[in-house]
Amino acid sequence: MYGIYSDNGEKGWKFDRPGFTRLMDDVKAGKVNCIVVKDLSRFGRDYIETGNYLEKIFPFLGVRFISITDRFDSFACDDAERALMVPLKNMVNDVYAKDISRKIVTSFRQRQETGDFLPANPPYGYIKSKDRQFRYDVDEKTAPYIRMLFEWKAEGVSHAEMARRLNEMGAVTPARRKVELGLWRAEKYKHTVWGGRTLIDILTNPVYTGALVYGKMPKALYMGIRGRRAPKEEWRILEGMHEPIVSRELFDKVQDIFEQNRKITKEKYEANAKNREGVENRFKGKIICADCGKMMRYARGYSKKREKMYGTYVCGGYIDSHGAKCSRHYIYAADVEEAVYAVIQEQLKQAEDMTKVRDRLKGGVGERNRLEAFGARISRLTQEIAKVNARRKGLYENFVSGMLDETEYQYAKQEYDKRMAGLNRELDEARSEKEQFEAVFSGGEWLKNIHTAAGAEMLTDEMIRGLVKMVKIYKDTRVEVVLNYSEDREKLETVLKELEAEYGDR
Fold first, then answer.
1. What is the arithmetic mean of pLDDT over 34-43?
2. pTM summary value
3. Which of 34, 223, 299, 460 is the one with CA 20 to 30 A from 415?
């Protein structure tokens, strides 16, 4: 069996490519034991990351790596070859990629300075001109919504109210418009709704005054810049390049409003800095809405009754869609911490109980019988492999001596090869099962990590980092806690139950 993993159009220095991600998922799942590439540059051009995979990750996972044109085979090369040739090749590929990057970026910059370059997708409110190269024409279907937004902002209308109005009137969103124009094809973009981030991007974009804007999300591999939102001071703006949708006066008025709001927010932030102490988002990146799958947003509040700050988690899907998706459900951060602490304590009790059972069974008949059975199977397969290998070697001697003709030799050799391949697979499985049993019986990572919570009277940041994989919040405020190493716990529980049922206290 084999599979083809490709990333057409993706940059060679990136390792978050879809094809590469799918390959590594299959490697981790044990579906891939050999990777073949045309040359090392096809695998990756970041020499540090590529070297990490070839020298550490693949050898650890037992995966063979073959580069055809480089004549490199990780199972055949010696340590000296691996230490010298592979890093050198990777470094050359890395330098080549950065040299190409430098030339491309320089070319783009030169074209941008003269206005002879347009981004792949035109901004909402414009379409690429059919009559003028490197210019935009006003999109008459969406331009009215742009004018509305700037006028509403100047009047003091909130972003939530703007989004509600646009959604009610059925105004096409930027994502849906790209689908209509054939720029995007994914079905999911047909069902988008207006949200805060989209509104801010539109209301702060100078393109609507007739300018071309470059450098908002700069990328330059040779400089180590791999995509980031640049501050406005770094944007390159060419004025008077196309028909404006809003006047400069209206645009500047809106920017002044944003600036005033930023100052007010900063002042409030600084004024409340002391009150925020001890009220932090402890589950950042680990807490989601179980109903819509969006991250829960953390917010702080002040209780006059208790005279102290508190934290809450609110559905991010509801906030982003301004009520169009999911529901406005929230939960106090303290309740989340209490639920997570309770789950960890329950698992800690299970760990203590299972440890007692494991210690009672350790060295007993059950464990010895299992290990002896594994050992017997491995020994039998090893002996059988040795026998088949000896017969296979003798086969060639019989062919050379004339006892077998070529047809008989080839047929017998194929049968022995099949038998050897089958036996080697069985031997690998037997060794793997033995190792898994030993790892499971020791409790694996679960027992080692869950015991870090022993004696803790409250939830600590160390417990959250090491034990909590995800927290799901339902709209009825139910909390589902997913802990790390749950598979280790389930395997240990299964093995202990099996040994108890078979051997009991013997």
1. 81
2. 0.44
3. 34
